[in-house]
């Protein structure tokens, strides 16, 4: 069995040689409101690789020929890496996906060559880069590159078909990140908007999901996407690993992670997906879920109830005052803390700024549920957001200002601002890449035979 590390490409299509996932690790799925799967037809032989005069033209992409040998080889690679057994029912889907992938790669390489000519730069990965990637893949399978090549050959896959796929992925990823990555900006307001949505959704049910998204525009229409999703579900029900299927067939940005979308709350996904999740139980695969641009397959890994509790991380600066303090003493302490407050720029520097002022002590109060705070503190922080600082608060022990370092729903997995920013960046870059490819397909002359 072959395992391989993911190539961190925009679609990460196929270079993870999952086929090769250990049989003992194959998960079992249940259908959500689905009839039992019909027995699979006897698996046909893998497509034969035409040789010599039997080789013909499968497609022409802007005068660049894709031969039937290229197509047969890519089908073999796709079958090996998806963990799906070929049958009479799904062999056409393998052929379609293999051809779409080859067409996309031809368009990518053609575009990169055009950019190389116009900009006088080198964009296409050379042999040394490809060898390095393949060597890493072999090493992850405890093989030498020669052993890895031999293993592929044993499945009827020539190393050149994998080299071409790796070259296109490395080159295209580098071009997209180089051209658009530095231009993308995820603003603080975008991060805060996500944090607010997460906080608002914290009381709703939460779902840990994996996803496969079939892009209808890429595969030739909604009907084709639905039929393809139905075939994939049938194969996963029979044991094909979800992560391997996602890496090969999904057009979502999560494909590189085997379709892992993590925890989501009701309202974060399309309404059609929310409706399906509401009817599912952990361990189930959804039926095909049509949305505006394609079809989703959802695997519900876990589910939990929302939480109504809010957890806050606080730091404080305080001046000790007895309950019998005079109005003049309270006024003086208030003025001192207001001075500290005006100097503090974030939760990170409140202790340092307070430490420079005589009579002021500061400290980290850690995380606690808001409902467990003293009444005066609770009233002050309920309406504060992360990064904000309260005004002076009088207690029996003295006068305090509170800095809200973080605020989240109790029991929920909290994403840091950096994690949210990274997720938004990846989503934007993936969207740009998909639009780029859509434009290339629209303007191209593509003829299939």
Automatic annotation (TrEMBL):
Transmembrane segments: none
GO molecular function: peptidyl-prolyl cis-trans isomerase activity
Keyword line: Chaperone, Isomerase, Periplasm, Rotamase, Signal
Record protein name field: Parvulin-like PPIase
Species of provenance: Phenylobacterium haematophilum
PROSITE patterns attached to this UniProt entry: PPIC_PPIASE_2 (PS50198)
Record's signal peptide: 1-32
Domain PpiC, residue spans: 204-302, 298-406
